[in-house]
Amino acid sequence: MKRKIIQTEDGSSSLLMEEWGETYHSRHGAIQEAKHVFIQNGLSLFKEQSVVILEIGFGTGLNAFITFLEAKKFNQNINYVGVEAYPILPEEVVKLNYVAQLDATQYDTEFQRMHSSEWGKNIILSDSFTLTKRKQFFNEINDKDCFDLIYFDAFGFQYQPELWSVEIFRIMFDALKENGVLVTYACRSSIKRAMLEVGFKVEKLKGPPGKREMLRAVKKR
After folding, report:
1. What residues make up the domain containing 126?
2. What is the pLDDT of residues 186-221, one digit of tens each?
3. Is 4 inside any structural domain?
4. In a 3-state reduction of DSSP, which class is residue 142?
5. How many domains in the chain?
6. Quick one: which of 35, 77, 105, 174 has the fewest CB in 10 Å?
7. If you average pLDDT over every residue of the chain, what do you get?
8. Residue 175 to residues 23, 47, 74, 133: CA-CA distances in angstroms?
9. What proportions of the chain, in percent to the nearest 5, are helix, strand and coil?
10. CA 102 to CA 163: how far, in whole Å?
11. CATH number for the domain including 166?
């Protein structure tokens, strides 16, 4: 499917799936959304800890890169696993402006390595951050009790409802450790019901700019 680079309202880049009219991030601000959903309401719960993260939809690498930066502030050791079935292209990566927008030019090499590193290999990006990218479909994930935190950043329900199903959330539930947390920008009632059905404790939280609510789910047996 054809993609093009766009600029969101906070000045940061995203990709637009032209056939769908769907973007990889909020049009109201890619960086704003990532920080609110995944950092403020996810990563910040694990300050001064070692954290194993699963990202559902590695995409542009924005969530991974912001996590790399924020983990330094939170004094965390991060083991980051990003799952993506359709990686973006090198010519798209070079057009993304996240390094500049995040005032992180000293870490440009690390951002580039996030994309250029080999799939399926554990890559050490710093003494406190390792990355493994896995090229697979979400329903192929078979990890059990492995992750502290899941960033669930799949394309929207209206375009790929199968990614927001009971089947997928059961896989997510099984992949999390006890008391593990899943955060997502979405807040559709059917998504919340699917989470509840597999055993998650679910709460609605204030959404990022341009969105009223989001969901956070916790694995508690």
Report:
1. 29-219
2. 999 999 999 999 999 999 999 999 999 999 999 987
3. no
4. coil
5. 1
6. 105
7. 96
8. 27, 21, 24, 16
9. 35, 30, 35
10. 30
11. 3.40.50.150
Nearest to 177 by CA among 66, 50, 77: 50
Q: Would 142 be classed as within a structural domain?
A: yes
14, part of any domain: no
Q: Which two tokens stand for residue 211?
A: 């969105």
How many residues appear in the chain?
Answer: 221
User: Has this prediction a pTM greater than 0.85?
Assistant: yes
Both tokens of residue 221? 């047996």
pLDDT band at 1 (very low <50, low <70, confident <90, very high): confident
Q: What is the dihedral of CA 18, 22, 28, 30, to 10 degrees?
A: -90
CA dihedral (82, 58, 84, 217) positive or negative = positive
Q: What gap in Å lies between CA 10 and CA 102, rounded to an integer?
A: 11
| Residue 186, pLDDT score | 96
Tens-place pLDDT, residues 5-22:
999 999 999 999 988 889
Q: Tokens for 133, please give them.
A: 């990218």
From the list 52, 30, 43, 98, the residue with the least C-alpha distance to 72 is: 43
- Domain assignment present for 168: yes
The radius of gyration computed from the CA coordinates of the chain, to the nearest angstrom, equals: 16
Task: State yes or no: pLDDT of 62 exceeds 80.
Answer: yes
Two tokens at 33? 């959304």
> In the chain, which ranges are continuous DSSP H helix?
30-34, 62-74, 90-93, 98-101, 108-116, 166-175, 189-198
